[in-house]
Design brief:
The chain has helices at residues 16-28, 52-55, 62-74, 121-124, 152-160, 177-191, 239-248; strands at 2-7, 9-10, 35-37, 77-86, 92-99, 105-110, 133-135, 140-143, 165-169, 194-198, 201-204, 207-208, 214-216, 222-225, 231-236. The chain is globular, with a radius of gyration of 17 Å. The chain contains 7 helices and 15 strands. Helix 1 runs parallel beside helix 3 (62-74). It has a single domain (2-254), classed as Carbon-nitrogen hydrolase (Nitrilase/N-carbamoyl-D-aminoacid amidohydrolase), CATH 3.60.110.10. Helices cover 26% and strands 28% of the residues.
Length: 257
């Protein structure tokens, strides 16, 4: 299974409409892949708090329409990162969108752990309340977003739901980039699963982004890692490797709690 992570540059001088079209073009260029992943809040920027309400979309909004068409054109499963979603009651959520190769919206995930410590996303957005996994033909994806990476209980729950790989779009700041790589590897090792962690390049509302998208295998080995600029990582995953790792070193069998 071939996966491509698009570490898109969120440039404040580029309009959201232009970046949306450009992201669609980048997805279409990955037609040789099976799965394509975009980062968190790449339309507005994860730290552009003042834009969340104004740019919030419904699940059939302009980003969803563009990403649906791009997935269909490329014939790929597309984790389109996340967008500010406006729910039926007006609440704004940080919501990930997953599209099938036919362009159908296959799954949504509202970010459970909101970052900000009583400000920013933590007060401007609602929290999701359910774990989401997506069965693909060869493996099952568990969905998480950025700050979720710091909460191992969420990933244990996704393992129990059958996840073989975790997809983690993010807008992770440069000043904590060491944590990003460390936590991605930890989640892979402790759950014996792939981690596909896709960050952004550039700056969100003046907050420099870490970039450094990374793909980690079930043993914790880094299969591919990006730099800090706009970049596409493409890596081949072995669905059988998860089962093999869990059989050879059956640590999950010894769980007590």
């Amino acid at each position: 299974m071939r996966a491509s992570l698009i570490q898109i540059d969120v440039n404040p001088d580029e309009t959201i409409k232009s970046r949306r079209v450009r992201a669609g073009s980048l997805v279409r260029e990955q037609s040789g892949s099976d799965l394509v992943v975009l980062p968190e809040l790449w339309t507005t920027g994860a730290f552009a708090y003042e834009r969340f309400a104004d740019e919030a979309e419904t699940l059939d909004g302009p980003t969803a329409r563009e990403m649906s068409a791009a997935a269909r054109d490329a014939g790929v499963w597309l984790h389109a990162g996340s967008v500010p979603e406006r729910g039926e009651d007006g609440t704004v959520y940080n919501t990930s969108l997953v599209f099938s190769p036919e362009g159908a919206l296959a799954a949504t995930y509202r970010k459970i752990h909101r970052f900000g410590f009583d400000k920013g996303e933590a007060v401007l957005m609602g929290a999701g309340d359910r774990l989401v996994s997506v069965p693909l033909p060869d493996l099952t994806l568990g969905l998480a977003t950025c700050y979720d990476l710091r909460f191992p209980e969420l990933f244990r729950g996704l393992v129990d739901a059958g996840a073989h790989a975790f997809v983690v779009p993010a807008g992770w700041p440069e000043r904590r980039s060491a944590h990003w790589t460390l936590l991605a590897r930890a989640r892979a090792v402790e759950n014996q699963a792939y981690v596909l962690a896709c960050g952004t390049a550039g700056a969100h509302a003046g907050v420099e982004q870490a970039g450094r998208s990374v793909v980690v295998d079930p043993w914790g080995d880094v299969l591919a890692a990006a730099g800090v600029g706009e970049e596409v990582l493409t890596v081949d995953l072995s669905p059988a490797k998860v089962a093999e790792t869990r059989e050879v070193f059956p640590v999950l069998r010894d769980r007590v709690l």
